Amino acid sequence: xxxxxxxxxxxxxxxxxxxxxxxxxxxxxxxxxxxxxxxxxxxxxxxxxxxxxxxxxxxxxxxxxxxxxxxxxxxxxxxxxxxxxxxxxxxxxxxxxxxxxxxxxxxxxxxxxxxxxxxxxxxxxxxxxxxxxxxxxxxxxxxxxxxxxxxxxxxxxxxxxxxxxxxxxxxxxxxxxxxxxxxxxxxxxxxxxxxxxxxxxxxxxxxxxxxxxxxxxxxxxxxxxxxxxxxxxxxxxxxxxxxxxxxxxxxxxxxxxxxxxxxxxxxxxxxxxxxxxxxxxxxxxxxxxxxxxxxxxxxxxxxxxxxxxxxxxxxxxxxxxxxxxxxxxxxxxxxxx
Length: 337
Description:
Elements: H1 3-17, H2 31-45, H3 49-67, H4 69-81, H5 85-104, H6 111-130, E1 132-136, E2 144-147, E3 153-154, E4 157-161, E5 164-170, E6 178-184, E7 189-192, E8 222-228, H7 233-246, H8 248-265, H9 271-311, E9 314-325, E10 328-336
Parallel strand pairs: 1-7
Antiparallel strand pairs: 1-4, 2-3, 2-5, 5-6, 8-9, 9-10
């Protein structure tokens, strides 16, 4: 297929894709997308592939994978033209998945969609044969991963690469950075995962110090039995209050981490924002784990204090005597164990 025919087919297909899944009443709402698609086409014709990809990706992110699935095919071809094989394969697969879903729903497909489906299947088969594939498995905890000089991505993806040697870097730029050298042949898939790191266990609290009791035994005095606690109950009240308040910190930290995931996976999130989220997410997750460990440690310490407060109590004999002095009464209290 000539370059001119390719441009003409792309233009017709791109304009048609913006009408898929829309009613006639909503057609006017799609006019801005058609205009932006034409602008991207002009960039493509001028050889500015990266600018065309940015323009079409913005439209695709706004329409979503279902409504803009036809544009996914054009993005795949554009990514191939810029030698971004992994991105091209992802867009081909997204297009094929949506076509399969529409066929399963008994939707009638346009002949051009069926031709694009055949071309996508053919290119996916060719890419698998002529490229190597590196599958990044999610670790514990999951880390942002970079392959060679590509943009870092959150673990759990497949990257199509040129056969040969490659460098996989987990958590690049952090204290936990880990580098792996991987060799992959054409048609081969190699699984790579980060080294598992156990979660730190909370440090057990130190036992509280005993409160000394001073005794002054006095003979021939009345006595009664009292319970001696190892420390003041105020300590319990303070510990329970701090432990209760600390529960809010991991809740907020986990909510922030899950909010990043939800925003990253949302269909309306732009690719540039996803990359920012992928770089921010490891720190948010570590913060959530750290605050949870601190909350657990405070709760354990509070439980130990409560147990020791009641289990470490002792009974004591309190001797009470009174002596009459001129003009006043003096009371004397002493303790004997």
